[in-house]
Amino acid sequence: MPNMSLKKNEMPSQAPDVRNKNFLEVALGYTEEQAVDEANRCLHCKNAPCVGGCPVAIDIPAFIDKVKERDFEGAYQVIARQSSLPAVCGRVCPQETQCEGKCVRGIKGEPVAIGRLERFVADWHNSHSAEAPQRPAPNGHKVAVIGSGPSGLTCAGDLVKKGYDVTVFEALHLAGGVLVYGIPEFRLPKAIVQKEIDGLKALGCKVETNMVIGKVLSIDELFEQGFESVFIGSGAGLPRFMRIPGENLKGVYSANEFLTRVNLMKAYKEGADTPIEHAKKVAVVGGGNVAMDAARCAKRLGAEEVYIVYRRSEVELPARREEVEHAKEEGIIFKLLCNPVRILPDENKLVGGIECVEMELGEPDESGRRRPVVKEGSEFVLDVDCVIMAIGTSPNPLIKSTTAGLETQKWGGIIADEETGLTSREGVYAGGDAVTGAATVILAMGAGKKAATAIDEYIQRKNS
Amino acid sequence: MYKIVKKEVLNPTVTRMEIDAPLVAKKAQPGQFIILRVDAEGERIPLTVADYDREKGTVTIIFQIVGATTEKLNHLEEGECLQDFVGPLGTPSHTDGLHKVAVIGGGVGCAIAYPIAKKLHQQGAEVHSVVGFRNTDLVILQEEFEAVSDKLVIMTDDGSSGRKGLVTDALKELIESGEQYDEVIAIGPLVMMKFVAALTKDYGIKTVVSMNPIMIDGTGMCGGCRLTVGGETKFACVDGPDFDGHLVDFDEAIERSSMYRDFEKQAREETCNLFAKEVQ
What we know:
Distance between the termini of chain B: 30 Å
Largest sheet of chain A: 5 strands, parallel
Number of helices of chain A: 18
Order of helices and strands of chain B: EEHEEEHEEEHEHEEHEHEEEHEHH
Oligomer: heterodimer
Strand content of chain A: 15-25%
Radius of gyration of chain A: 23 Å
Distance between the termini of chain A: 53 Å
Largest interface: A-B, 37 and 39 residues
């Protein structure tokens, strides 16, 4: 008899007023009992619309059935057929618009908590299974993957499982891309990312850090070294600024810089070598997940007041609903329909405040969203000592500028076939934010997966 | 891990190290830099490529002990390893088509000026080097500069080596005496570069400076190193570190470089105390 409760099993979490002072994970995960109980809410639909909502098409009813039977390792093996990073995806995917958005139980009541179950299964495997995975038989072909973020790791994982000799090249000193430098510890513990990467290494995938492709080696040199195909998953790491007066004052950060210092360099820890400003009053400009992450980090670094300054209204906030709710619970103050016009210095050339104007929403623009229009004479100053710009990023031009014949969009995105990831260069594939501009972890993974299939077909065809 | 093949003390505060990093050595050009981490907990710091040996696969760095990380770095000995060493980063210095150049180096900035002077010399350009130090104990790379310079002027603040005064005094004299330079290349403390640029602007001589802002990744992903050049925001790690000295907003750059001064001072003291305890 299925569990017909209309609500998901609650996720045990740290209380808002406790967690906003530490960097430990907010959500604590299901117990075995909670997981089995939640799994029993799944009706095992024959047409399984949830699977169609998952960009990597995990066999969701099959893994949930294993959870019902308490065969947690079996459940993990079902997920592992499709996903290389389940502990990550279970945590950071926007399930409400993906798998859970299609769940039949969601029509009346809440959908099955697929993300929480995936997370439970992956964590159970990571803490119970010490067995080294069996290495696939090598097929003798070499593939290079540029970038160790979600798209690169997924592509590498799929190819390694097919027997390819895969090397992942990472520019920073740690692999993981946005999973290590962007998403904070309290949403995605770095030990979990490391464990997933160690899993790939155990399968035979090589990871070389400190390798800035375009500087240390070019794509052409990778081909000379015997790689038969290259996947570019270099992301969209180039921060945008607003080009308003005062943006170069001390105390103005890009969200990338702020989050890199906090997450990758662990500047939040007492005694860390990398410094960070522990500001008292912080304005974060932008309304996406990155803005929420930066605001919640600033709060945890001890800021008394943290503002989200966003030029549209609450319904247009691009961040996940859950992240917005978490931010509010933790005391983040939302200044909606507000746009900064300049940053004011104090007597020491530090940030002394941010001057904003109020906005109202006019007619929809090309993107279909209502265009914000300045309210005349509505200028006001927010009293802050730190400003974090989280208004978006674009692809880094380094690989484009060092690879002849690689075509890109005007804004820097690599032009690649939507189904295969093939670029304008033979044997060179691309996916993730490097192609689409800043998007989500799971879309990047889906692109990495499609490219892995296409690379496999390309190499097989070439060698047949 | 990247092995320290050779370590040499150049003066009480400046050390030279040759690091085993074949891939970096293969591509490095004068004007480019590397980012290193001393150990697994360390911060990322940028240092300019002072020299390289493509055959041996080594890259030379020269650093001044100014804070906690350079203090830790200086405590490593030959045979020990650095955790991370990534590069070459940044755009190489532009040296093509230059026939007569004044290369100005200040303090440890001479370590960056030297490979550029060397490259210009190898290209057959006439190189006049003006190098400045606080006093005679701090003079570095004198022989190296002699070998690649058609004219070398050493300046010290107190006159204990070469001549007494600032590099700008010597440069002004050279220009006034009728030397016609295609370009002046100045590398050293921000204040020194600011005054060199101000001087050459009066004479209308193109001047290139090598900027040294705070950096984290060094690959263009954070903008921590941003500067205003000709009214536009540039990232020193990818657009530079070389820029037209007449267009750089030096006052802003000087302000931005002081961002973490208190933190740095405290970190340095803690590190020094730590090493002092180890000695006891």
